[in-house]
From TrEMBL:
<dbReference type="InterPro" id="IPR043502">
    <property type="entry name" value="DNA/RNA_pol_sf"/>
</dbReference>
<dbReference type="GO" id="GO:0003676">
    <property type="term" value="F:nucleic acid binding"/>
</dbReference>
<dbReference type="InterPro" id="IPR052055">
    <property type="entry name" value="Hepadnavirus_pol/RT"/>
</dbReference>
<dbReference type="GO" id="GO:0006259">
    <property type="term" value="P:DNA metabolic process"/>
</dbReference>
<protein>
    <recommendedName>
        <fullName>RNase H type-1 domain-containing protein</fullName>
    </recommendedName>
</protein>
<dbReference type="InterPro" id="IPR036397">
    <property type="entry name" value="RNaseH_sf"/>
</dbReference>
Length: 245
């Protein structure tokens, strides 16, 4: 630790990089299977770095862990699916960038945002910042999604809509769905929810945003709830340049 920031040592970083290079080399030769023990060693190394890298560790190892569930034994080969391969490449490209976690962030934040979702739309706003109310409507397919999907997607869309305002900020993000807090921090076994969680993490990383999700009782989230029930006739869209990572 230096100046309140926790780091992984260069020795441990290099060990993980070397292990990832081995598996990526195998992938380059067309091999998509590794022993369960070898994959577990990668996951173990990544998990051990959580103190210096934060919630992204739990979020970006779920697919690798899922591959282990199908092992016949620790020495048996397991198939790496496309999502697990994406996680391996992610860690190869970002392990050094993610190294370093400011412990003071736990107590300090510079902005507060509330969001909510209803059966017809989503809404949110930044506290004490003018012209930051965001609203949008679900299409016919989205309106049939689970409430958890809608609440999580609301976080994502409000985040993108306020991106210019929120860049570089540490944000306390309030939601009245406790599942959302868990998923943003640790991901989800459900593929559609995991995808949104990863998109949120990518946007935050790209724009130097620290997101601190916090559950709040529904009666304390009235304004965002009301906004989510206001129908916006304009189509809502995403500028793809904002979310490349």
């Amino acid at each position: 630790m230096k100046d309140g920031i926790v780091y992984v040592t260069e020795t441990r970083l290099n060990k993980l990089k070397d292990t990832l290079n081995v598996i990526i080399h195998r992938l380059g030769k067309g091999e998509i299977k590794v022993t369960a023990r070898f994959l577990a060693s990668i996951i173990g190394q990544i998990i051990s770095m959580q103190g210096a890298m934060g919630p992204v560790v739990r979020l970006r190892k779920r697919s690798m862990y899922d591959c282990l569930l199908y092992r016949a034994s620790w020495n048996a080969p397991v198939l790496l699916n496309s999502k697990a391969l994406d996680e391996i490449v992610f860690w190869k490209e970002n392990v050094a960038i993610l190294n370093g976690r400011d412990l003071s962030i736990v107590e300090q934040y510079s902005c507060i945002v509330y969001s909510d979702a209803s059966g017809i739309g989503f809404g949110g706003y930044a506290v004490s910042i003018s012209d930051t109310e965001v609203m949008g409507s679900w299409n016919s397919v989205e309106s049939l999604k689970s409430s958890t999907w809608r609440e999580l997607e609301a976080v994502y869309r409000v985040l993108l809509s306020l991106l210019v305002t929120l860049q570089g900020e540490t944000i306390k993000w309030y939601t009245d769905n406790q599942n959302i807090v868990y998923i943003i921090k640790q991901g989800s076994k459900k593929g559609d929810l995991q995808l949104i969680a990863i998109k949120i993490a990518n946007v935050c990383k790209l724009n130097n945003i620290v997101l601190l999700p916090q559950w709040v009782p529904r009666e304390e989230n009235v304004k965002a709830d009301q906004i989510s029930k206001s129908v916006d006739c304009d189509d809502w869209g995403i500028d793809q340049k904002c979310i490349q990572f």
